Amino acid sequence: MKKLSHLLLFIIISTQLTAQSRGVKFYNPQDSIRYDELTLMLFNGYKVVSTKDGLKMQVVDSSLLKHNYSRDSLNKLRNNIPTYSFLTYNSNPSYTTLTQLHASDKKDTIQYLSFEGPSIDKLPIREILKCKKLKGLELVNTTVKKIPWLLNWSLFGLDSLQTIHIYNHQSKKALKFTKNDQVTKLVYRENPYAKAPKGLWKLKNLRELDLVRNDLRDAAVLKLNKFKKLKELNMSRNKIRIQDLTNSQIDNLENLILSFCDLDGIPATIKHFPSLKELQLAENDIKSENISSEMANLKELEILSFYKNNLTFLPAFLFELNQLEELDLYYNEIEIVPKEIGQLKQLERLYLANNRLFNIPDEIGQLTMLKELYLKHNRISYLPNTLCKLENITDFHVNDNYLQGFPDCILAFKKLRDLDISNNEIHSIPPELLDLHDLKLLWMRGITFEARNREEAESIRNTIEGLQKKGVKVSLDLE
User: Fold this and answer.
1) Choice between 33 and 314, residue whose per-residue pLDDT is larger
2) Do residues 228 and 205 make contact, with C-beta atoms less than 8 angstroms apart?
3) Residue 189 DSSP SS3
4) How far is Cα 356 from Cα 127, in angstroms, rounded to an integer?
């Protein structure tokens, strides 16, 4: 369990978590002091302190037991202070620690090492070289300045090492990497105080690079064009721009994740990644009019996510991405789905939930490969009959809309497993639901059942009971 720390000057404020703690980076000492003052006011002078009996809330400023500020106003003032949030880590408990490494007389059996603490500024090379079966190396909160060339594992019989994980790096100087032909995965996360690492491209066999939450501002320093085998790149929660990633074509990259990066558009330089199969752009501020038509050149793209952005319409060129299998448009401001949606013949998962849709075009019926269709939280009052053609649907969520009656097209979904029709103007369900033999979940919250006679009432009851007897989990409001 992590200890809760609280530093007045711009280092870290943590809250207790089971695996990680939340940290906050301040950009100047004054902001840190002000943040601490507002936090004390927010908790009426109380503060979490460490005692011999553990963590406790104690009054540290009795003058703040009563004040005239509301919680909302204090939170607003505190949220206006520029900060950068990150996580602080403990070492993996299943890994061998430095102390255990020193004491071990079977170093040649060790597969995973973890070194933790700012006192570690150099790697114990001689002892590491004895770990002939080493697969993973983890550095947590260290001040190591260099991954030395001696750890070019193939030269010293350490050719099994594949992954390096580095968290909360404390060195003020940029961590330097030297030539290595074995490592295939590097995770360099939660290092907002450290400068961007140097020489990453010297990891010649690197296939997966995770640079999440480092407060990186200049992606150009990474020299992505030198990564000849890189397949996956995750740069989420950094302040980078797509146009800074590269100025030349990168043919090898297949997965690119740029979530939470404050992006407001997709520039023409996206064309430099023609081999992309997955592009994740969740939780940005991308606007439809700021998406370059060069996106149409991503002919290999299979997964595209605009989850929680600011799209108001879907540019026509997006429908030229005819290899798409998943399109995530959750939480946007889209009002119309163009008829060109029917061009995405390979689409298996379409998420249009939480938008402003009034209807769905007939062309939706051309997506015969579709398995998951989420239309919930829109303004849809009817569904096109062409939906009946989607015989491969397994998950259909159309809850929180304005549907008038049970959509009969649902009965054509013979492979349906998960159905949500909650919070619509639906007052009855057909007994044919019993014929959907794969159905496992049926959500009908907010549905008020109405029957014109006893026969209809018994039909509804028998259908629900019959589904439950078949093992279907039926969720109802029983009030």
Assistant:
1) 314
2) no
3) strand
4) 61
Say what the pTM is.
Answer: 0.87
DSSP letter (8 states) at residue 25: E
Q: What is the DSSP string of 265-295?
A: -B-GGGGG-TT-SEEE--SS--BGGGB-GGG
Looking at residue 4, the DSSP 8-state letter turns out to be P
CA Rg, the chain, in Å?
A: 28
Q: How far is CA 396 from CA 83, 277, 300, 426, in A?
A: 40, 25, 27, 16
Closest among 215, 102, 101 to 169, alpha carbons compared? 215
Average pLDDT over residues 213-234: 91
Q: Which helix (H) or strand (E) holds 257?
A: strand 255-257
Q: In DSSP terms, which residues pair with 305 in a beta bridge?
A: 280, 328
The amino acid at residue 388 is C
Question: How long, in residues, is the chain?
Answer: 479
Tell me phi and psi for residue 261, to 5 degrees: -115, 10
Residues 218-243 have a mean pLDDT of: 92
Half-sphere exposure of 329 (CA within 13 A, CB side): 30
Lowest mean pLDDT across 39-53, 260-274, 368-382, 390-404: 39-53
Can you give the residue ranges of every domain in the chain?
20-86
